[in-house]
Amino acid sequence: VNSKVFINGKFLDPDQATVSVFDRGFLFSDSVYEVIHVDGNKLFLFEEHIERLKRSLSELDMDFPNYDFLTICQELLKISPVDYGGIYIQVTRGTQQPRSHFWHQKKLLPNVVAFAQSIKRPEKKALKAITYPDLRWGRCDVKSTSLLANVLAREEAAKNSCDEALLVSSSGWVSEGSSTNLFVCRNGVVKTPPLSENILPGVTRKFCLEVLNELAIPYKEEKLSKEELFNSDEVWITSSTKDVLPLESIDGIELKFEMENSLWEQVFNRFKEKKLKSLK
Amino acid sequence: VNSKVFINGKFLDPDQATVSVFDRGFLFSDSVYEVIHVDGNKLFLFEEHIERLKRSLSELDMDFPNYDFLTICQELLKISPVDYGGIYIQVTRGTQQPRSHFWHQKKLLPNVVAFAQSIKRPEKKALKAITYPDLRWGRCDVKSTSLLANVLAREEAAKNSCDEALLVSSSGWVSEGSSTNLFVCRNGVVKTPPLSENILPGVTRKFCLEVLNELAIPYKEEKLSKEELFNSDEVWITSSTKDVLPLESIDGIELKFEMENSLWEQVFNRFKEKKLKSLK
Q1: Taking the model in full, what pTM does it have?
Q2: B 115-134 residues inside an 8 A Cβ radius of A
Q3: Helix (H, G, I), strand (E, B) or coil at B275
Q4: What is the structure's pLDDT at B2?
Q5: Does the beta-carbon distance from A26 to B25 stay under 8 Å?
Q6: What are phi and psi for residue A104, nearest 5 degrees?
Q7: Residue of B nearest to A103 (CA)
């Protein structure tokens, strides 16, 4: 890997890229992050991600760090171009020694980490998902690194040779995937769970809703039950690095989805077109 | 600070003590920890903490690292003796590059961090607490570093000049404090919430129940409502570095607690005696 990792103003080799063990991100998952999608070495929806980063920081009473993230991203992409992937940015509350649960209302110096990462461009192919209990904390609208529940769910999906885990609350509502937002369609109407403290306000989710608007496809933001998942004509997931992709099975049960003439394909094509125009 | 930090077999100066930014503990809070209490430079309930560490690791499908933690603890206490405090141990799933939510069932090499930390010996004094929404994830019985909900609650307590935040679920049950277990007494009977996925199986909680047994003080492990907190004769919190301490107020409301002739004082005295015999 010939990429670099940005840490607090320096661009370091990945094996030199470290943080203190007294960093509150490491000790308490007291940190937030973003993944800004890169396609053809260009940034997608950069401003929207930075806006969400600001919101996450503000919700945790942290200041926005004094860095020009656009320049950092551009520098990272200059050092190692990314055909498809993302730029990961993490901001922690900072290093605090001795370790203490609270930070005494003192503003610490945040630790800022950023790196570019290439992934395989997703094929135009339906994915498989499992359902899994939603064990996440009560503020999933804040994009924090308190992700243990998410990664356990995602690993369970991988164990079952699936691509995503759809998270179901104890009362039977499906909120989203472990790192994706969720859409279903039935009889030509699209539905996605409304923003709440259990849902990440997905940048790609919002972009997808704009695409639906442009295509005049009706949609509603309403709570979604596990039963509805299986009674839908189509189920899609969205994320920064997946754009919008359909599912072909959930919990091993085949969905009746056919790619050809699907609502998804209309949305996918318009999404792609609109995305190309938005890349910077 | 002339202490050292153990990392993966080496004892390093605190400012040299770093982990990779690709550590899964840092990126995903995919790690577990323990704080082993030290009094008079001796370890308290070492085996019990290691047992719980084993359980936490096993619940997350991680192997117990191949280190002799007793020797590590003793070495840390030799380098910098601790009159009162603890030894912090953290085990992460390991470093994984590129960043990926799942670890593909591959066993990574865990990162192991340990350091000694001195704190002020608590006074024999009643504490103040607030109540705060329990926003934690669904597996609080696993002592993971997914602690963002805990530290936000604890900071809110500090903002209100209080010592602890008691966590109340949306249905009105009080589970425990942000880093303590909870006991109440009414009419000579002690009550503490039963172990569940919302409760950390506290090593000090268990030790305190043993003390109650020895003193033939009746107790029950039952769910506890927020109302009961305020209707109790005494409210205590327990933790590895606090032993057992009473509260004098919650949410600014004075409790009727009097230290003299309290049930707490009986328990505190026996706890201290029993503790002295258990230090190693």
Answers
A1: 0.97
A2: 115, 117-119, 133-134
A3: helix
A4: 67
A5: yes
A6: 55, 35
A7: B155
